[in-house]
Specification:
Layout: H1 3-14, H2 26-35, H3 41-54, H4 58-63, H5 66-73, H6 80-95, H7 104-107, H8 115-126, H9 135-145, H10 154-167, H11 173-186, H12 205-208, E1 225-235, E2 244-245, E3 256-257, E4 260-263, H13 269-279, E5 285-290, E6 295-298, E7 302-313, H14 323-326, H15 333-341
Parallel strand pairs: 1-7
Antiparallel strand pairs: 1-4, 2-3, 5-7, 6-7
Helix pairs in contact: 1-11, 2-3, 2-8, 8-11, 9-11
Function: Adenine glycosylase active on G-A mispairs. MutY also corrects error-prone DNA synthesis past GO lesions which are due to the oxidatively damaged form of guanine: 7,8-dihydro-8-oxoguanine (8-oxo-dGTP).
InterPro entries: A/G_AdeGlyc_MutY, DNA_glycosylase, HhH-GPD_domain, HhH_base_excis_C, HhH_motif, MIG/MutY, MutY_C, NUDIX_hydrolase-like_dom_sf
Domain HhH-GPD: 35-186
C-alpha cells in the first residue's frame, strides 16, 4: 500500500468534522483558508460561522463596509487579511460577476491569495491536481523522507511542492490535500508526536534515524522589536471619550484606538502626566490615573508593552463617544478587552 493510500485511509478514519469540508463552494473555502492563516481551527471556526451568516455570498461581503468587516474580524489578528478579503470580494463581485476563478493559475491573481490558498481552493472546489504546501505539509514530508533543507528559505517551497506533486493522486487531489494537512495537525505534530501509533512508523525515515524532533529544519526567526504604548483614555464630565483611526501603514491599519503616546521604555506617571498636559493642552485636566499593570501583547515581529491611563477633564469633548457607541467600533483585541473590563460612565 503506497503513501497516499495509507494517508487517505488514516484521514477517513480520523478527520475532524469541519464545516468547510462539507462544501465545494469556493467562497466558503476561500473564507476558511484566509481565516486559518496564522490561526488555529478552534479560534477560526466561530469567525467562519459569523462571516457566512452575516455575508452569505461574496457579493454581500463586497457590499459591506470595511469597518463592519474589521469589527467582525476583531480578535482574529493579522488584519491585512480582512482588508484583502474585502478588496478581493469586491473584485470578484464587480469584475468577475460574482464568479470565482476556477483554476490555480487564475486564483493566484486574486489579492491576498498565495500559492497555498490558491492550491487549496483549486483542489477542494474544482478537484485540480495541485498540491497544498503549508507548515503541516513541510513537517510531514521532511520527517517521512528525512529532508534537512531549511524550510525558512524561499527555494525550499519549490522542493517540497515538487515532491508533493509526485505523491498527489490525480484522481483524488482534494482528499489527499485535506489528509496530509490533517495528518500534520493531529498526528505528526510539531513537538513530541506519538510515533508508536503512527501509520507510517515502519516507513518514516525520520523515525528510523531518530530525527523526528529535529525535523523540519528551520533557521531562527526574525528579530523581535519591542515597542511601548501608552493609551490616553479621555473621560469628560458626561462620561464620554475620544478615539481615533490608525491610518498609517503598519499594525492595526484602519482599526481604532485611544490617543497614543509611544515611548522608548515603560513610562512612569510623571512622564505621562507631563506629556498629557501638552497632548491635551486645549482641555483642563482634573486627574490622571494608571488603569492597569503593563500588558505585553505579542505580534509576529513585535512585542507591545501597553499601559492605559485614564485622564478626566473638566470640559466636554466635541463629538465625544459614549460607552455604548464605543463598543461598536473595530479595535485591536487588546484595546477591546480593556474597554470591556473598564467601567466608563454613561
Amino acid at each position: 500500500m503506497n503513501f497516499h493510500n495509507i494517508l487517505i485511509k488514516w484521514y477517513l478514519q480520523n478527520k475532524r468534522d469541519l464545516p468547510w469540508r462539507k462544501t465545494t463552494n469556493p467562497y466558503h473555502i476561500w473564507l476558511s483558508e484566509i481565516m486559518l492563516q496564522q490561526t488555529r481551527v478552534a479560534q477560526g471556526m466561530p469567525y467562519f460561522f459569523s462571516f457566512t451568516k452575516e455575508f452569505p455570498t461574496v457579493k454581500n461581503l463586497a457590499d459591506a463596509s470595511e469597518e463592519k468587516i474589521l469589527k467582525l474580524w476583531q480578535g482574529l489578528g493579522y488584519y491585512s487579511r480582512a482588508r484583502n478579503l474585502h478588496k478581493t470580494a469586491q473584485f470578484i463581485a464587480n469584475d468577475l460577476n460574482g464568479v470565482f476563478p476556477d483554476s490555480y493559475k487564475e486564483l493566484l491573481k486574486l489579492k491576498g491569495v498565495g500559492e497555498y490558498t490558491a492550491a487549496a481552493i483549486a483542489s477542494f472546489s474544482y478537484n485540480e491536481a495541485v498540491p497544498v504546501v503549508d507548515g503541516n505539509v513541510f513537517r510531514v514530508l521532511s520527517r517521512y523522507f528525512d529532508i534537512e533543507t531549511d524550510i525558512a528559505l524561499p527555494a525550499t517551497k519549490k522542493e517540497f511542492t515538487a515532491l508533493a506533486k509526485e505523491l498527489i493522486p490525480a484522481d483524488n487531489p482534494a482528499v489527499f490535500n485535506q489528509a496530509i494537512m490533517e495528518f500534520g495537525a493531529l498526528q505528526c505534530v510539531p513537538k513530541n508526536p506519538d510515533c508508536t501509533i503512527c501509520v507510517f512508523n515502519e516507513s518514516c525515515a525520520g523515525l528510523q534515524k531518530k530525527k523526528v524532533n529535529q525535523l523540519p529544519v528551520k533557521s531562527k526567526k526574525v528579530k523581535i522589536t519591542n515597542r511601548y504604548f501608552n493609551y490616553l483614555v479621555l473621560e469628560d464630565v458626561l462620561g464620554n471619550t475620544f478615539i481615533q483611526k490608525r491610518t498609517s501603514k503598519g499594525i492595526w491599519h484602519n482599526l481604532y484606538e485611544f490617543p497614543l503616546l509611544e515611548t522608548d521604555n515603560i513610562a512612569d506617571f510623571d512622564f505621562v502626566s507631563q506629556n498629557a498636559q501638552q497632548f491635551f493642552s486645549h482641555y483642563t485636566i482634573n486627574s490622571i490615573e494608571k488603569c492597569n499593570d503593563s500588558v505585553v501583547h505579542k505580534l509576529s515581529h513585535q512585542h507591545l508593552t501597553i499601559q492605559f491611563w485614564k485622564i478626566k477633564i473638566k470640559d466636554i469633548i466635541e463629538n465625544g463617544i459614549d460607552a455604548e457607541k464605543l463598543k461598536t467600533f473595530p479595535f485591536p483585541i487588546v484595546i477591546y478587552n480593556f474597554i470591556e473590563n473598564m467601567e466608563i460612565k454613561t
